[in-house]
Write a structure and sequence with these properties.
single chain; alpha+beta; FAD/NAD(P)-binding domain; 3 domains; 7-stranded mixed beta sheet; 5-stranded parallel beta sheet; 16 helices; 34% helix; binds flavin-adenine dinucleotide
């Protein structure tokens, strides 16, 4: 079977590798000069940085994504280290303690900070353990017997009344303090999803306790296993390069600087793709990753979709973008940055910040920023004695007023000024700097509207099915998954490839 794949992000590579390993002839087409999409990374002056997902989850052999990577023969070729994230809010910090404080350390810390919320924190913890059990049992259901299924449904039962709750409602059920609620929902800003629209139970999965303290054991309670965070040594591009090499050694082809401009459909069936040079690449199946709007309204010939389908595609809630500065610094910032990823927040109003960003208003760093410190785990990502840092903020893809390209230096100065309040002296240590605006991300990903993690995980919204109405055409990647991200994109691209094999 011959398969054309549009895009070499984690979605395209996962699908490509799954199919190549099973003997399919795969050809991948990437518009950019380098592979990997937002996971491709960049280098300058001896420094290396990642763009996209900065820490990964569930990559060990026994964990969900690790199982897939192992099956694809690439897991042993990348080196992982356990990792974690820290939080810095205007009035309090959630920092990894010097000495391991046991399973409840974060709840104990929050109880010290918010003593009047102790009962709510206990109730939250009970439900967190139950949710972790639910996910663990859910993952085992296929391979284990009836007992696991019964245990799963019994665990689910108490959650049924909360199934339709938003994050806002769920957190109001446990807590009164807006500041404390923010400690659990602040990450929703990265999803461009207001807490009033995010599915409430998702809060437990966004707050895996082990992601705040890597020394925790995975085993939380009976039948409740947590999934870990990892840094990939050398950055995500290490995984990307290993996957690409495996595809090629299985006979697959990867073309860079090749824009696919058309998906060719004959008698209602996708049978090839045409590149920017007008060259037709015939195939039996086409897998498209990348933009939903771009794929369904631009690449496909008019009239090959059912009436009203493209209108539906245009309604999917996309995230917005990021403003990013990659820095090379000549000092060691680990007195402030104790771990690989630190989230600094300047606001507790997540709902308002998301709504303002969606209206094209940029907070310039005032509402918060994330600092990634890759050379902490991978010293080879910076010249000796120096460090690589990435600072980013969420931002609108298009500004209500102003121009990203014209104003990028000004925005970089403002963001660095906010960062320097947390990292004294930062600016005097910068030896190199690369600014990336939504315009750069649009180019990198070939999108009209850059959506940081793809589809915003909003309740009651429609998602494009992987199997499209055009026979032989499949749609994968961040804009096909609620919440995007490697966690969702990698397993679903693998699943789609397996479905194609069964067809
Ligand atoms: C700064 C940042 C931080 C992130 N952090 C997290 C995180 O913490 N957790 C999380 O879950 N997710 C995170 N993400 C999101 C996650 O990285 C992405 O959702 C995921 O990597 C997307 O993979 P993809 O293959 O779907 O898309 P992409 O990586 O965008 O790949 C699609 C590829 O298709 C190519 N392409 C598109 N159209 C065409 C065409 N017509 N012809 C040829 N090529 C084409 C593009 O050039 C691109 O290379 C982050 C993203 C960013 C940018």
């Amino acid at each position: 079977m011959k398969i054309a794949i549009i895009g070499t992000g984690i979605a395209g590579l996962t699908a490509g590798l799954t199919l190549a390993k099973k003997g399919c002839q795969v050809e991948l087409f990437e518009q950019s000069a380098r592979i990997g999409g937002v996971t491709g990374g960049m280098e300058a002056e001896g420094f290396e940085w990642d763009y996209g997902q900065l820490v990964v989850e569930g990559f060990a052999k026994h964990e969900p994504l690790g199982k897939i990577l192992d099956e694809l023969g690439v897991l042993d070729k990348v080196k992982l280290v356990h990792d974690e994230r820290e939080y810095d809010f205007p009035d309090f910090k959630i920092r990894v303690p010097e000495e391991y404080g046991g399973l409840h350390w974060r709840m104990d810390l929050l109880k010290q900070l918010f003593p009047e919320e102790a009962a709510g924190l206990d109730a939250y913890w009970k439900d967190y353990v139950r949710f972790t059990r639910l996910v663990t049992l859910g993952g085992r259901m296929e391979s284990e017997g009836l007992g696991t299924k019964i245990a799963f449904y019994l665990t689910l039962l108490p959650f049924l009344p909360k199934m339709k709750w938003s994050a806002e409602r769920l957190l109001a059920h446990y807590f009164k303090s807006e500041k404390l609620k923010c400690a659990f929902m602040s990450i929703l800003a990265d999803f461009f999803t207001p807490p009033s629209k995010f599915p409430g139970l998702g809060i437990f999965s966004l707050n895996g306790e082990i992601t705040f303290e890597k020394r925790m054991p995975e085993h939380l309670a009976k039948n409740a296993e947590m999934t870990r965070f990892y840094s990939i040594i050398g950055g995500l591009k290490t995984l990307i390069n290993v996957m690409a090499a495996e595809i090629e050694s299985a006979g697959g082809k990867i073309h860079t600087s090749r824009v696919i401009e058309q998906i060719v459909v004959k008698d209602g069936k996708a049978c090839g793709v045409k590149d920017q040079h007008g060259v037709l690449h015939e195939c039996d199946q086409v897998i498209a990753s990348g933009g939903a709007k771009e794929t369904f309204t631009r690449l496909l010939p008019a009239n090959c979709l059912p009436e009203g389908y493209t209108d539906k595609v245009l309604t999917i809630p996309l995230m917005d973008s990021v403003f990013m500065i990659h820095l090379g610094v000549d000092y060691d910032p680990s007195d402030v940055l104790h771990t690989v990823c630190t989230y600094f927040y300047g606001s507790y109003d997540i709902e308002g910040e998301v709504m303002r960003a969606r209206q094209g208003l940029y907070h310039e760093g005032a509402a918060g920023f994330v600092v990634h410190f890759p050379s902490l785990r991978s010293p080879e990502m910076a010249p000796k004695g120096k460090h690589a840092l990435t600072i980013y903020t969420i931002c609108p893809d298009r500004l209500a007023s102003g121009d990203w390209e014209a104003d990028k230096e000004k925005y970089a100065d403002k963001l660095l000024a906010y960062a320097e309040k947390k990292m004294p002296g930062l600016r005097s240590h910068i030896v190199t700097q690369r600014i990336l605006t939504p315009v750069d991300f649009r180019k990198l990903t070939h999108l009209d509207h850059h959506a940081f993690g793809g589809l915003a995980p909003m309740m009651n919204t429609w998602k494009i099915p992987h199997k499209t109405p055009v026979d032989g055409l499949w749609f994968i990647g961040a804009q096909s998954e609620s919440g995007g991200g490697i966690n969702n994109v990698l397993p679903s691209s693998h699943k789609v490839a397996k479905k194609i094999l069964c067809n």
